[in-house]
Specification:
single chain; alpha+beta; 3 domains; five-stranded antiparallel beta sheet; 16 helices; disordered N terminus
């Protein structure tokens, strides 16, 4: 029994030539060597594509059946990324290389040209398969093992770029029938031009390595880049650009080397801490700041009975900061209504369930200006969510604005409030 051969035999080629002769006879066309060769190449090319498609379909169907039986995540992802389909592209050129020589005489110039072209095509399909495997490896690692969301896509792009440069050199060397070493030697003369052409890619690759090793940037981080409109979430990092979606759903692209060569602000630490800084200010009218009188004290205690204990503590140590055990010192004094209001504001922030009490809480007076004396409230919310943050900030400012009136203080409403500008 004759063995089955994957590579076409001479008998198959002879049968194809006889089939072509019958077609010419049926159409009444006189046979010529050039016309026979042309028709043979067309038939063999179509046959090779059909054979390649059938083999690819069989392989993919078999993998799908195995995945369906074993419920393999690896196999499912292999199908989703179409890695097998891309790797099977090399089958048609192999069939072509086996069939084409049969129709041509040995030493034919046309056969030599066709073999070179098909050989270059085969190398390109191998490059497609290698690039698909590299992309699948990156996808697997980035999906399952890249827990820090490191920007590794630039490394993938470099690997694929190097692969295609090698494939291009080998393909050209096959077509021109020269050694790849000759081409590589010639490329040295164009090194300067290549550096200019791939300048952004080279800088992006170096920047990507620096950002990954120094843990400067992850996909999903909220960053702000001064001097640019970038103020949002990092969506993608490649060799030539960092894609950022701003809080207003606009997109901004920034070169990776811009982030390394200059500075940018990353809010990842804020999200990891689970707390966000709040730093608003109210401007107190200086004309309403007076020495503390018994009338004002009585008014304060009536509106806020909890202040009696604070006033008693301050009375025992006049002119000194009295600390509450275990938390923070009460920032206030018993000399002016503004000092007593500072103590109240500190106590309010320390006891508010809306704030994170494990982080710094501070009430401070800023330098006076033409509108009055700004009083600044430095604290941290217990959440990083934008909506909740704004609600907490508004609630605290509303309460302190109204409470200031109980201390015979007036807020200068024409002043400005210092708040975080970043909408993280």
């Amino acid at each position: 029994m004759e063995k089955f051969q994957l590579i076409p035999s001479h008998a198959i080629g002879v049968w194809l030539l006889k089939f072509i002769h019958k077609i010419f006879s049926w159409l009444g066309i006189s046979r010529t060597q050039g016309l026979e060769e042309l028709l043979y190449v067309v038939i063999v090319t179509l046959l090779s594509l059909v054979v390649g498609w059938i083999i690819k379909w069989l392989i993919v169907s078999a993998v799908r059946k195995i995945v369906g039986m074993r419920h393999s995540v690896f196999g499912q992802e292999l199908l989703e990324q179409r890695t097998i389909s891309h790797c099977a592209h090399f089958i048609p050129p192999l069939v072509l290389l086996g069939f084409i020589p049969i129709a041509f005489n040995r030493g034919s110039h046309m056969l030599d040209i066709l073999e070179r072209c098909v050989g270059a095509y085969a190398v390109i399909t191998i490059g497609i398969g290698i690039a698909a495997v590299m992309s699948f490896i990156f996808y697997r690692y980035d999906t399952h093992d890249n827990h820090k969301n490191l920007p590794l896509k630039g490394i993938l792009n470099v690997g694929r770029g190097v692969c295609w440069i090698v494939i291009a050199i080998i393909s050209i060397s096959i077509i021109v029938d020269r050694s790849p070493a000759v081409l590589l030697t010639g490329l040295g003369a164009f090194a300067a031009a290549l550096m200019l052409i791939f300048k952004d890619s080279i800088l992006g690759f170096v920047s990507g390595i620096q950002m990954s090793q120094n843990d400067m940037l992850h996909v999903g981080d909220w960053i702000v880049v001064p001097g640019t409109p970038a103020n949002g979430v990092v969506m993608d990092v490649s060799l030539t650009r960092v894609l950022i979606q701003n809080f207003d759903n606009t997109f901004v692209t920034v070169p990776p080397y811009t982030l390394v060569s200059s500075s940018f602000q990353n809010y990842r630490g804020m999200k990891l801490s689970g707390a966000r800084r709040m730093n608003p200010s109210l401007t107190i009218d200086m004309n309403t700041i007076t020495r503390l009188t018994p009338e004002i004290t009585a008014q304060v205690v009536k509106a806020h009975p909890e202040m009696q204990a604070i006033i008693d503590s301050f009375s025992k140590a006049p002119g000194q900061i009295v600390a509450e055990p275990g938390i923070r010192p009460l920032n206030g004094a018993l000399e002016t209504n503004l000092g007593l209001f500072r103590a109240y504001a500190t106590q309010y922030l320390l006891t508010s369930p809306l704030l994170n009490h494990d982080m710094q809480v501070l009430v401070q007076l800023l330098d006076p200006n033409e509108n009055g004396i700004p009083i600044n409230f430095y604290c941290f919310t217990h959440t990083t969510d934008w909506n909740e943050y704004e609600a907490i900030r508004s609630t605290i400012l509303e309460h302190l604005t109204v409470a200031a009136q109980d201390f015979a203080l007036e807020i200068y409403y024409g002043g400005s409030m210092e708040i975080d500008e970043v909408k993280a």
